[in-house]
Amino acid sequence: MAKILAQSAIVPTLLTSRSHGASKESGKPKRSAKMMCSLQSPGLRIRSFSGLRGSNSLDNIVRFGQNFHSKVGISIFSRRGRGSRCVPKAMFERFTEKAIKVIMLAQEEARRLGHNFVGTEQILLGLIGEGTGIAAKVLKSMGINLKDARVEVEKIIGRGSGFVAVEIPFTPRAKRVLELSLEEARQLGHNYIGSEHLLLGLLREGEGVAARVLENLGADPSNIRTQVIRMVGEGNEVSVVTGGSGLFHFQGKLDPVVGRQDQIERVVQILGRRTKNNPCLIGEPGVGKTAIAEGLAQRIASGDVPDTIEGKKVITLDMGLLVAGTKYRGEFEERLKKLMEEIKQSDEIILFIDEVHTLIGAGAAEGAIDAANILKPALARGELQCIGATTLDEYRKHIEKDPALERRFQPVKVPEPSVDETIQILKGLRERYEIHHKLRYTDEALISAAQLSYQYIRHVIILFHKVFAISYDRFLPDKAIDLIDEAGSRVRLRHAQLPEEAKELEKELRQITKSKNEAVRSQDFEKAGELRDREIELRAQITAIQEKDKEMNKAEAEAGDGGPVVTEVDIQHIVSSWTGIPVEKVSTDESDRLLKMEETLHKRVIGQDEAVIAISRAIRRARVGLKNPNRPIASFIFSGPTGVGKSELAKALAAYYFGSEEAMIRLDMSEFMERHTVSKLIGSPPGYVGYTEGGQLTEAVRRRPYTVVLFDEIEKAHPDVFNMMLQILEDGRLTDSKGRTVDFKNTLLIMTSNVGSSVIEKGGRRIGFDLDYDEKDSSYNRIKSLVTEELKQYFRPEFLNRLDEMIVFRQLTKLEVKEIADIMLKEVFDRLKDKEIELQVTERFRERVVEEGYNPSYGARPLRRAIMRLLEDSMAEKMLAREIKEGDSVIVDVDSDGNVTVLNGSSGTPESLGDPISVDYLAVDLKVIASLPVGIEGVFLTPKISCLIGRGKEDAGSLSTVVFFLVPSTAIGSSLHFCKES
Questions:
Q1: Per-residue pLDDT averaged across 216-226, rounded?
Q2: 443 Rama class: left (phi>0) / alpha (psi -120 to 50) / beta
């Protein structure tokens, strides 16, 4: 009830009326002009008035059920006829939750004793029964308890008749106590009425039953008053001075501070100044600013400080707690001035304000001044010693803009510690984390945490199904400490799991419990009893296994060489889960994958051995940790004619090693041809549209730091793009428009270009399958040197010099195009297989596709158009005409006129087309076969024999149909010639 009244601000007003609420003149309930509602219930009548909220014209109506014992409608009835007297409702606006609870308990005590009034004795019982306020604590310290007080009250006034009216009025003395409590609160300078003020008002009234009860219990009213005032004073001191927490009180809980001696000495030096003795710790988040303040508190506690600050206390101030609850203008300023006065008087307090920039604007309502302006004079005169801490960005954004505040603080730069310093910090914290997680950390784990966090963890990155979410940059030692903390939690949880044997029993137990409940529902109690016995048996077995496991762990811990241990592998696992970068040691399976990487990539990229080998080598170097840690994994420029597989190789790499093609960041540089579009890569400058969104390149890499970055058609980009990429290629970093450094050290950069296509096309006529290996190689090297010279004319030397390798892609030969056609056809087969349609094509159709799709100048792209025109269009027409349905087997062939034919072979399953088999032959004449004498046995001819017509020896490598003649060749006739069957 108290909480509802306090939150809703519906404070019932003391109102006098007749006991039944009726007027003699009208016979209807008489309502005040201000009364807005009257609630009737069997146990309670609540009257609420408007105007108590200030801004709201009508109060909320709260209804309570009959079973709520603490219903209270604070109505004070005068039994003196028409003469009515209303206590000012402003008093009840100031009642605290505890004071409201006291009034509620007083009414409950009246009902318990069967009295129709609430007097001073009921208020006294309510004060004792409340239990948590200052009044209850003082009375308890005097030896007064609720049981004895109730006995004394019954001795003095006895029990009532038992009939209690709906509304319980307050006696005149009780009204007087409430009025006196308001006066006591004003005298103490409080803008609220609590249980302590009610007790002071009760003591000041001094003539009621409550005074006799206290006298009978041996309590001295003057002593009680003194104790109340003393505790009120102490309460104010606690609430003002420790608006946060005293660091000196937590000596056993604070982590040890390792290093940072220079910064702590600098802080002590500034604190010893006569004026402006206010150091401000400035550094990136997570570098240890708060730890320096804690280290100073520890030094003061141990006496290891100069006499200028010896014996002082470091108090951390909570600005949120200071502002909380300041509803009215001037309340915040009053709190802050009391804080400053108390610090001036004690002369032993050093105030530590974390996030000191929150002083600016704190408590600044309309017409008021903020905390920073209130503190400025005291900070300048040295009356208030304050240690502030904030980040570089917040200092620049807030404090530097206020020169008057900036000059009152002396900045102390807190740099990020090195990896070696971080290792020492982790070793200093090791004991605390071992005690918390109940395990041990190896030295290798701590060293690995410092090194891997520095190398890989640059941002807050969360991995959700290959998608990253990022929030802010991370710095040492914070990220290394987080690593060992989470690794300890992971190892501890892993060891806390049930043994495998117990897990199996748990699974069986769940099934038995489910079956037992079903048997009970079906009233098969005999079966339920058997299952219950089995359930009890399983629970006993599980308990025994758990106890045995605990005993083993305890024995290992006592031996000193057992228990969970956090190793380097655990740290590596956490880093991989945070960043998505594989930093664990290479397993046997992954080692085999890396060694066979070229073979796997060639399944998707036909030819281009030089490019595939170069990329595979770069991935292997990076995976085993031999790459330069300050540069990207590798940077290549792929030059060659269109359609030869430059972009396809990047996609294949992303799909094979980085998880999926979506793991690749692709930028079409044709979108960055103008000078002003360069800003799209790193973000718009301040004041321009899109400044808050970041750059397309920088934001993508921040979210996905381990990936392939493809700059497609790099030669189409504006020259300013190349200038921006110099630092990426050399140092593996790029600064965006907001000044944040983005890490490119775990990316593989691929740039594609068509520069040199004309040279390759002219020289490509000599690079073919008609040359031997040495001739091919020498011709390729000659063309590569020519293309390289052309690249040097187009790109600046400092750009090309930073690339790891410039790879020239060869033109595709007809055989390579045929292999690519098989890959593209397989994609169509897979799409149709999803529709439960089996598709096969003849060799003649393959030849037709290659013939129409092969163009040395355009690469493999015309091939996709040929497949779409010859195959996909024909299939689409047949499917729409319902000639091909789900479950059909389809053969696509080319007839003698060169037209594509689609044959539905659903009546009989067609033969599957085998792998290409090399067959040497001269010719097969179908006329001769047709004229063979009937009855010749052993001639097996398939419908696909027509694909052999018109073939030359040079195309035999792609033959996929074999015709077996099982009879001697002489029996077929001289017109059928062949040399060899295979």
A1: 78
A2: alpha
> What band does 493 get if pLDDT is binned at 50, 70 and 90?
confident
Q: Residue 471: is its pLDDT beyond 60? A: no
Helix axes 814-834, 843-853, angle to 10 degrees: 120
Asked if residue 574 is part of any domain, the answer here is no
Please state the rounded mean pLDDT for residues 496-515: 78
Residues 614 and 704 reside in one and the same domain:
yes
Strand partners, 855: 859
Residues 293 and 172 in one domain: no
Lookup result for tokens 């190789």: 649
Domain count for the chain: 6
State the sign of the Cα–Cα–Cα–Cα dihedral 529, 531, 533, 535.
Answer: negative
Q: Residue 579: inside a domain, yes or no? A: no
Classify strands 459-464 and 634-639 as parallel, antiparallel or unpaired. Answer: unpaired
The predicted pLDDT at position 236 comes to 47
Cis peptide before 477 (omega within 30 of 0): yes
Give me the residues paired with residue 480 across strands: none
Query: Please, what is the angle between helix 120-130 and helix 172-187, to 10°?
Result: 50
The answer to whether the beta carbons of residues 210 and 123 sit under 8 Å apart is yes
Mean pLDDT of 795-816: 85
Closest alpha carbon to 314 in 341, 286, 291: 291
Of the pLDDT bands very low, low, confident and very high (cuts 50, 70, 90), residue 447 is very high
Query: Are the beta carbons of 77 and 169 closer than 8 angstroms?
Result: yes
Q: What is the CATH number of the domain that holds 313?
A: 3.40.50.300
Whether 929 and 893 share a structural domain: no
Question: Bridge-partner residues for 282, per DSSP?
Answer: 390, 413
Tell me the per-residue pLDDT of 387-422, one tens digit each, with 9 for 90 and over: 989 988 888 888 888 888 888 888 999 998 999 999
Q: pLDDT at position 527, please?
A: 84
- CA 375/CA 337 separation, integer angstroms: 9
In a domain, 113, yes or no: yes
Question: How does pLDDT run across 429-443, given as a tens digit for each residue?
Answer: 998 888 888 888 999
Place of tokens 């605290």: 96
Q: Which of 238, 255, 284 is the last residue of a domain?
A: 238
- Please tell me whether residues 368 and 440 are part of one structural domain: no
Together in a domain, 678 and 782? yes
Give the residue among 660, 489, 453, 692 at the shortest CA–CA distance from 576.
453
Comparing 134-148, 407-421, 627-641, 825-839, which segment has the lowest mean pLDDT?
A: 134-148
Q: What residue ranges in 109-258 does DSSP mark as E strands?
A: 245-246
Q: Within a domain: residue 777? A: yes
Same domain, 189 and 218: yes
* Average pLDDT over all residues of the chain: 73
534 in the same domain as 629: no
Distance CA(492)–CA(469), nearest Å, equals 27
Tell me which residue range forms the domain holding 949.
Answer: 914-982
The 10s digit of each residue's pLDDT in 647-705 is 888 888 888 877 777 778 888 888 888 888 888 888 887 777 777 777 888 888 888 88
Residue 79: how many other CB atoms lie within 10 Å? 11
How many residues make up the chain in this entry?
982
User: CA 830 to CA 597: how far, in whole Å?
Assistant: 24
Same domain? 856 vs 765: no
**Spatial CB neighbours of 299, under 8 Å, sequence gap ≥ 6:** 264, 305
Output the domain CATH number for residue 841. 1.10.8.60
Residue 93 confidence class, pLDDT cut points 50, 70, 90:
low
> Of 187, 216, 238, which closes a domain?
238
